[in-house]
Amino acid sequence: MMIKVIISGFKGRMGSTAVDMVNNDPELELAALIDPYTTEKEVDGIPVFNDKADVLGVAADVWVDFTIPDVAYANTKFAIEHNICPVVGTTGFTEAQISELIDLSQSKKIGGLIAPNFAIGAILVMEFAQKAAQYFPDVEIIELHHDKKKDAPSGTAVKTAELIKETRTYKKQGAADEVETLPGARGAEFDGMRIHSVRLPGLVAHQEVIFGANGEGLTLRHDSYDRVSFMGGVNLGIKKVVNLDTLVYGLEHLL
Ligand SMILES: NC(=O)C1=CN([C@@H]2O[C@H](COP(=O)(O)OP(=O)(O)OC[C@H]3O[C@@H](n4cnc5c(N)ncnc54)[C@H](O)[C@@H]3O)[C@@H](O)[C@H]2O)C=CC1
Ligand SMILES: O=C(O)C1=N[C@H](C(=O)O)C[C@H](O)C1
Predict the structure, then answer these.
(1) Cα(205) to centroid of ligand 2, in Å?
(2) 15, 125, 169, 203: least surrounded by Cβ within 10 Å?
């Protein structure tokens, strides 16, 4: 069966890459494209809309979302309410929003995926970091991205910290009497560990998880050099969610 896909945010860096991916897969078909700042009415015969409400008459199975943190929650809720399975890469969800959307998806029996990162290497780094944190409670996360990124820290860094928290014995890191002579020098705090965000032109998406212990260190690093690195995960998500009856948070649940 051909899977019909809506792409919200199709004019963006990730949305446009996802359009190419769908067009190159004979099992997938574009149903509609959404982006508020385009005057196009169609692209290669596919209808284009500026507002999500306009897609209501369109037959679609999956809603791929690469938009902006401010609208991702409303978009995901809208998709579930209209029986379209969301596959969401947009970052910036709160824990409460994710659990509310999971409840909604289960009450509607609609599959879905919110994945802070679709690259297999990033998923593996998160898994390895969770394992390492059992033995190395001292850890700092450095995420490095292009300078057009709107949110900090990255969704991947937050998810990494959440996974580490599950296995790490809580520790407030750094010297008890440490002082920031420049505010923010030690980065953001999450459960006693620190997250640092680097933004530079030329970067795509990169993350280091650095562990330190007595006389030794361990560094895990992942690099996305090209947005094509995310497309295998988006493709897998689209094909899996149509057979689920709940939304899941993290691509690892579908691997
Ligand atoms: N999960 C993952 O693996 C990845 C997630 N991301 C996330 O995806 C999101 C998008 O990233 P980029 O493509 O780099 O951003 P971008 O800024 O290039 O694209 C965002 C697009 O969304 C559109 N948009 C804004 N409001 C909208 C609305 N209400 N409805 C539909 N479209 C709307 C914008 O006009 C723009 O074309 C970010 O949150 C980013 O963190 C990015 C890369 C990988
Ligand atoms: O904005 C990006 O580019 C990325 N965003 C996601 C995040 O915030 O983790 C995933 C990836 O890091 C690229």
Answers:
(1) 6
(2) 169
Token digits of residue 47: 């209808």
Give catalytic residue positions: 145, 149
Euclidean distance between CA atoms 240 and 91, whole angstroms? 20
Residue nearest ligand 2's atom 13 by CA: 205
pTM of the full predicted structure? 0.96
Q: What is the CATH number of domain 3-114+228-254?
A: 3.40.50.720
State how far the alpha carbon of 17 is from the alpha carbons of 13, 22, 105, 149, in Å.
7, 9, 27, 16
* 196 known member of a binding site: no
| Annotated binding-site residue? 40 | yes
141-184 pLDDT, tens digit each: 999 999 999 999 999 999 999 999 999 999 999 999 999 999 99
- Rounded to the nearest whole angstrom, what is the distance from the C-alpha of residue 252 to the centroid of ligand 2? 16
**Where are the domains positioned within the chain?**
3-114+228-254, 120-224
